[in-house]
Each structure stands twice: as structure tokens, then as C-alpha cells.
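Hello, quick one for you while I still have it in my head. Could you read through the record and tell me how the C-alpha cells relate to the sequence? No rush at all, and the record is pasted right below.
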Amino acid sequence: MVGAFEENCYLLGDEKSGEAILFDPGDEAERILAAISQKDLRLTRIINTHGHLDHVGAVGRIQRETGVDFYLHPDDGFLLDRLQESAKAYGLGPFETPRVTHHPLPGDRFTLGDIAFTAVHMPGHSPGSLGYLFPDRLIGGDVLFAGSIGRTDLPGADHEMLMETLKTKILTLDDAIVVHPGHGPSTSIRQERAANPFLLAIERQGE
């Protein structure tokens, strides 16, 4: 958890190769870099679920110091253009604007050691939101939270689109999938299907 927005940044490492991938480094670049060094990992790429300020604030510095590639869906590029303006509005920063080197698209597959995962387009909270689906878990950004869903009152957001994402991309996942959201505690598809009021409303509509 990093920054004023208490955003969840995820560092995944492979013990055999020592390689690591960083998801959504939103702030506290120095702390994140120290954690990578302490774990004796070699960062190979930064992957973001989306481009909001609280998820990209530390990307620029980490990218500069490590030289790694940065992955962001092209539809969220406009959010990087507004990074400094957004940071100033919240009294944060200034942050270094990162350089996108790769535009991941739905269905793109990645590997870390022996584990493969896939990019899934999950628009609504932002137009370019991507979830990263592993065999047993989802790094989902701000699409789904424990007991709630992502905001849709931000530039580029669309509530109806998010509802469609939840219906077609979230509720179709196996109940055992663990969800690691952009904020708050991890949860599971089973738990959210049973208790999340937004998912319950969608399922009632389908009855």
C-alpha cells in the first residue's frame, strides 16, 4: 500500500530466475526500489492496470532508475498527459511522467518464470482499464473492490460500461479466483458474487 490514496502496488518475483514484475507503482518510488533491492530481484517490466494518478505516480522515477519497459493500454494515454495537472490538484507531486514503451491489448499473454497470465480489457473505471488474469488470481485495478466497485465520476469513466464489464468479465470468472484490487483488501469472486451489492443487482437483472 503506497501513497496518500493507499493504493495497492504489487511486486511479483520468480525465485528461480530472480526476475520481477511491478504492477501499479502509484507513489513512494524510493520505498518500492528499496523493496526490490532487498529481495534481490531484477525488475523486468512495469505493468499498469490503468493510468490514474494514484497508480502511476512512481512509474517515471522507477523507469528512469531501472530502464525497464512500461506497459499501459493506449486508451489511457490521455491520463498520463494530465498527470502533472492532476497531481497539483490534489497537492501531490510533482511526479515524473513515465514513457509508455508497450501498449498491451486484450488477450496479450505474459510470463513470469513458469506462470503465464493474460490481459483482459475491463473498461468503465477508465477506458483502458486492464485486468491481469493468472490461473488462480486477478490483478484487477479499480474495477472491483471488496464490497464495492470502481468510481465512474472521473474523466473517461462510464458507469454503464463498468456494469457491462462486471457482467461479462467478472461474473464469468471462476468463484475460486482471488481478486487483488487497486485499493483495500483482497477478496474472491465467490465472496463478491455472494455479497457485493453491485454484482447482486446484475445477477438479479439476469433472472
Q: What stands out?
A: The first helix runs from residue 29 to 38. The chain is about 30% helix and 25% strand. The mean pLDDT is 96. The domain at 10-205 is CATH 3.60.15.10 (Metallo-beta-lactamase; Chain A).
